[in-house]
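Recall that a protein's primary structure is simply its ordered list of amino acids. Everything else, from secondary elements to tertiary packing, is in principle encoded there. The following example makes that idea concrete.
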Amino acid sequence: MSQKHLKEAFISNLNGTSLWEISAGLSLGPLCLLCRGLLLILYYLRYGKPLSSRKYNLLLDFLVLVSPLLFSCTVLSPVILFVPATIAAFCAGIFSKIYSQRKHETRVPFRQMVKDFQKTALDAEYIPAITVFRVYVNVLTSVCILAVDFPQYPRRYAKAETYGTGVMDFGVGAYIFGNALVCPEVRQKSHATQPKFSNLPRQFFSVWPLIFLGVGRLLSIKSIEYHEHTSEYGVHWNFFFTLAFVRLVASLLLAIFPKNKSWLIAVNLAVLYQLILNTTSLKTFILHGSNGRDTRVGFLNANREGLLSLFGYLAIYMASVQVGLWLLKCRSSVRGWIEAVRSLLLTVLVLFLLLQVSQAYVDPVSRRMANLSYCLWVVAHCLAFFISFVVTDLTLVFTKLLVKGSSVPCCWNVVKPPGTSKNRETEVVPTGREGKLPHACLISAINKNQLLFFLLANVMTGAVNILIDTIHSKTAFTLCILHLYMFFNCLIMHMLHARNIVLKFW
């Protein structure tokens, strides 16, 4: 068997893992973010100044935010359920140290501190959890697309063949969800009076890089005979095309229908698509082709998974638009966001209950078809992932109030701390939100060039696979390669960010 066929077999016929294991893995991101923030606050408490060195900031961010993800999806995967507990215990230890060493002027009863904390005013125009969510989805995706080619990456984390929930199955849907959270229709002010189709030309213009990248990936894979998993998207289709077409069709739908009803469009799309799958021969066509023997003759047969899964991805996108619109409602206090978290938790609970019903009585989760169960699963887990970042931010805000003057990049700015008199409010207005000044922060750096980061990850993944026999790599070598790959990618983003460079051609 050739190397190409070996690698294709290595990522084929897999069944995924449990939702509990995926949840445990996803909890690492928020916990690592919390750990990084607490370490920065502790540093300020000890030395009386923030960590200002860009070099040390990059090193800290990589070691705390990225490296644990690499270990958790390789050598630590057998004990993945214990890794979050270990990090949480370490964070609790740091918080306890900060709480016990805080200055005397902040030593008030804990109950009173909590009451004051709930009244704290936040910067209503910037929601750091959205930025962090999108960046972490990108980072997780970048880690997995290379790690999956090494034997140390558990096969249960890879994309399931037909039915199942793998980590990489979630990553595809989460990428769609994250894009919709910041689409032009969400960011457009509700009171702004613009023509209905004003966003369409902008979206047509903005997706050309995705189509260009999709064509480039197709040509490069075919020309060098790179290994590919045909049942993912088909013979010619790929994720870049999916993302481009979903964005275009979603913009058209949002131009026709009220955007605050996008959840209705999402429900109708997902349910109608599932009904067609169950009542017609469409499911058989997707899984086995028009002749029932997995034929790939003709464009539709060749790319049936990529083309027909667009309906499911479009439903996820529209649901995320509704979430984005709801999140951007003005919430200017900690209390407002605590109430928002409660509402989101209730939504997540309902979605997971619907997921159980759907899997039991309709169809199991299938990324290959992007069916109803897959849509429910992706939206539910994305909301849970987002909630965990909001809770992390609120925890860091509380900790920053214990140590006056401390700051954490990509965390909420406190507009008015509790107990601040009206005549002093102007003194505590933040100097600027993320994006106005280049913070020495890896999350901000990746956020500025997200598409470039994803493109670099794809190119470097291809280069590693061409140069290295990944299937037979030893553990130490695998960890070394994965760390070098991610560090080089992060270093490029860091250097661009330090010079305030955004590589965007549209």
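Residues 372-402 form the longest helix (31 residues). The first strand starts at residue 121 and ends at 122.
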